[in-house]
Amino acid sequence: METQSLTLARLRTLRLPIPHEGSKDERGSAFVLGGSTEVPGAALLAGVAALRAGAGKLKIATVRSVAIPLALAIPEAMVVGLPETPSGGVEAQGALDRLLAVTKGCVAILIGPGMVEDQETTALTMALLKQHSSAAFILDAAAICGLGAHAADIRAFGSRAVITPHAGEMAQLLDRSRDEIEADPLRAAVDAAASLQVVVVMKGAKTWIVDPQGAHWFYEGGGIGLATSGSGDALAGLVVGLLARGAAPLTAALWGVYLHGEAGHRLAADIGPLGFLAREISGLAPGLLQEAADDSATAP
Known about the structure:
Layout: E1 3-5, H1 8-11, E2 29-33, H2 41-52, E3 57-63, H3 64-73, E4 78-82, H4 92-102, E5 108-111, H5 119-131, E6 136-140, H6 142-145, H7 151-157, E7 161-164, H8 167-174, H9 178-183, H10 185-196, E8 199-202, E9 207-210, E10 216-219, H11 231-244, H12 249-270, H13 285-298
Parallel strand pairs: 1-10, 2-3, 2-5, 3-4, 5-6, 6-7, 7-8
Antiparallel strand pairs: 8-9, 9-10
Helix pairs in contact: 2-11, 4-5, 8-10, 11-12
């Protein structure tokens, strides 16, 4: 299929739901399952980004020992503490019932930022996918790596999911070498999208977005400054926020990549090409969305 460049002009054909009145419930409830004792801030970055993308409500679940500090850092969110494993991750068996209760009513669910890469994370990912028949999902970081063994199950509900791997995570997903993924990231993304029937955001210096039918979009990148700790968490949060607003998985993925990249361009111009922080990315999203809406209204 022909490669499509991801530009604002193309995005205008994929309109986002933009409510001008109504309650926060009409913009959807986003849920983030993320963080660990070693990387608690990933859930914070993703959660704030979800709100900046326009989600009406936010819930976060993380390991119990960091739940209170996280709740104080994001007073806009409901934060739930979950039992921990000895390695500092979420303990699946002890957490599942609580997660099923707290995710009730959430229309968009993000799993993975900052979580420990282990069987517990994979078990929780699969259980939540199977239990929520209508919610949209974005799977990031540790939630991606174990999906290869569950491809048949993922295909059953992949049409409502987005995955956001970098080369290392894609290598684990497809059981290939990282060098092979980096040599042809588009082929890897097409293979993963076809195998799992999900939308794939193949992250890197340049980003490929591929749908399950193989249609693909190319984003030139937001600059070297986006290659920084926590940048992927911000991207995942933007996507789950757009999903919460009611955007389809492909639309949310394309807009999320665009907002993330354009924020990188703006920060590079204002601060410098290197040294801006991931926590600064999502703060530019509301303005970028407003600019896109204004330009669309005046475009011929």
